[in-house]
Amino acid sequence: MGLEDLIAVLTTDSETAVVVTDGELSHPGPTILYVNGAFERMTGYSRAELVGRTPRLLQGEKTSLATRRTLGRALRQGKRMKVALINYRKSGEPYRCEVEVFPILDRDGVLINAVALEREVRRGPGRRPNADQA
Ligand SMILES: Cc1cc2nc3c(=O)[nH]c(=O)nc-3n(C[C@H](O)[C@H](O)[C@H](O)COP(=O)(O)O)c2cc1C
What's the predicted TM-score (pTM) here? Predict the structure, then answer.
């Protein structure tokens, strides 16, 4: 069973959006191999529209260049990284998102895949962060 099949089994019904890519970092990669249903719902793109594309399609003018560079550097170094950034849905609507990327290296330290767990962060009037626990 390949990695994306394993992740698919584990995350089909997960509330957390999950995306798996290959390890090709240079343009036009990385290439999306799998997204779960929560990722489809969050982004507004279907799995068929995402597989074969790059996560960069979620970026737009409000996506911080510095954060993109931080992600790119972490991937090249094979380091796990968690960032908050602005992604764009298929409709064009921006949303704030926490993205935690897990590089998957082979035994020689070569990046072969990456998996990201993504969660939309809603902020605004009447809803403080952690208000649930207050
Ligand atoms: C699994 C995975 C998920 C990613 N998800 C996002 C994302 O949701 N939003 C985003 O702006 N970049 C995301 N990226 C980062 C971009 O694909 C790319 O690595 C980043 O823009 C840095 O590379 P670049 O400087 O060549 O653009 C993701 C990368 C990987 C490997």
Answer: 0.92
